[in-house]
Amino acid sequence: MKLEPINNEELQNLRNQTIGTSQLIHFNNAGSSLPPDVVVDTVIDYLREEALSGGYETEAKYIDRINGVYDQIARLINADRDEVAVFENASAAWCTAFKGLSFKDGDEIITSEMEYVTNLIGLVDLQNADGIKVKVIPNDEQGNFSMTEFEKAINAKTKLIMVTHVSSSGGSIAPVEEIGDLAEKHQILYLVDACQSAGQLPLDVKKIKCDMLSATGRKYMRAPRGTGFLFVKKSSQDLIKPILLDFQAAGNVSLTAYTLRKDARRFELYEKSRALTLGFGKAIEYAMNIGLDRIWHRIEHLSVLMRRKLAEIPGIIVRDSGDRLSGIVAFSVNGVESSEVKLKLAEIGINVSVGGSQATPIYMGKNQLSTVVRASVHYYNTEEEINTLCQELSAMISAL
Predict the structure, then answer these.
(1) CA distance 400 to 395
(2) Which of 53, 151, 186, 204 sits CB 3.0–4.6 Å from 78 for a disulfide?
């Protein structure tokens, strides 16, 4: 089927359904995107009903819709319903999967130089406690993940492959499907951090062939903060020991034993915001009605345009490299600290963020970067907004 791009009329309708787009220019979608009005209304309406009827009573009324969010997440990533758990954030989801795995002395883990800081903390703790060896696959000279070096790193001791799909600071996209083919070939567990790719790119866990995948709602999914999910393939669920357990995860409880439930919700705790869960479901529904292929098509168009226009400005260095780049655009302004660029743009209603060395320490250290300006586009952004950003940056440099 031929892809129908988001046209100007549809774009204007989408912007009309997002009140924030009338207030500012938002290029911080990799941090937290602007939610559609219907997502905000879903959360507020539910909270109001809780206040009038009671929390448990409102949950009982909406239980089918709440449970339906699991089906929505499953459709989003082409998984089965019993392979999905809802979390408050991607870090909790990722740590639940990673820290639930069993390792022994001598085991090896393969990762990339683009790995996010939370994941690296988990690796440090594991190496210190259990003597695990970690192999980091560096990007090649063009900034691409090296499949050749990756395959060379695999051996009989390799226990886990863990990869961040879309880099937080560098803009690159890892070849997660190709990595999955090798993980399957060598029968190695495979964990994907999709924190920046969920909602930006189409995700299909069956094509990726991962055992585990974590994601957040607040970034490209346009869901409320405090939402996320974990996918665990059915055949891999018994390989992960739940870190925390309550009565949702376990039944038949006595002083001597309990029985784990048979799906991925064994990794959840019972108590979480039902309002935010419903808001998350509404955001997924909104994105899927547009179409993830169409969303990615527009994000890719806007990011290519932004990189080209930024590169044309004397005094700006675009820091992204690689053949496959995401909607996250990293750059530096000569003579101006990244934090100062952010503050000056915020004063005129343009949101960007600062990518610090702490977010992706291996990548930033390798490239001798302490900070970058991070401008992340979404489908509701416009070409005119990109032009405005570039004009303001040019004026900032001229004033030096």
Answers:
(1) 9
(2) 204
CB atoms within 10 A of CB 44: 12
Closest to 318 measured CA to CA, from 373, 355, 358, 363: 373
Contacts 24+ apart (CB under 8 A), 334-337: 334/397, 335/397, 335/400, 336/396, 336/397, 336/400, 337/371
Q: Side chain identity at 212, as an amino acid letter?
A: M
Domains and CATH numbers, the chain: 8-35+291-398 (3.90.1150.10), 41-289 (3.40.640.10)
Rounded distance between C-alpha atoms, residue 29 and residue 351, angstroms: 9
Residue 277: CB partners within 8 Å, gap ≥ 6?
66, 69, 86, 227
Tens of pLDDT, residue by residue over 48-58, are 999 999 999 99
The one-letter amino acid code at 236 reads S
Stretch among 37-46, 107-116, 217-226 having the lowest mean pLDDT: 107-116
Q: What confidence tens digit (pLDDT) does each residue in 137-180 have?
A: 999 988 899 999 999 999 999 999 999 999 988 789 999 999 99
Q: Are 240 and 263 in contact (CB under 8 A)?
A: no
Torsion of CA 380, 384, 385, 391, to 10 degrees: 170
CB burial class (10 A; 0-12, 13-18, 19+) of residue 313?
A: middle
Q: Retrieve residue 73's tokens.
A: 């997440």
- Who's near 2: CB < 8 A, 6+ residues apart? none
Q: Report the C-alpha gap between 208 and 212 in whole angstroms.
A: 10
Indicate the length of the chain as a whole number: 400
Residue indicated by tokens 């790719």: 197
The total of other beta-carbon atoms located within 10 Å of residue 289's CB is: 7
d(CA 301, CA 293): 12
Measuring CA to CA, how many Å separate 280 from each of 154, 228, 273, 289? Answer: 38, 8, 11, 14
CA nearest to 241, candidates 359, 98, 358: 98
pLDDT of residue 19: 98
pTM over 0.85? The answer is yes
Amino acid at the residue 6: I
CA distance readout (Å), 264 to 115, 119, 361: 25, 21, 31
- 224 in Cβ contact with 35 (< 8 Å): yes
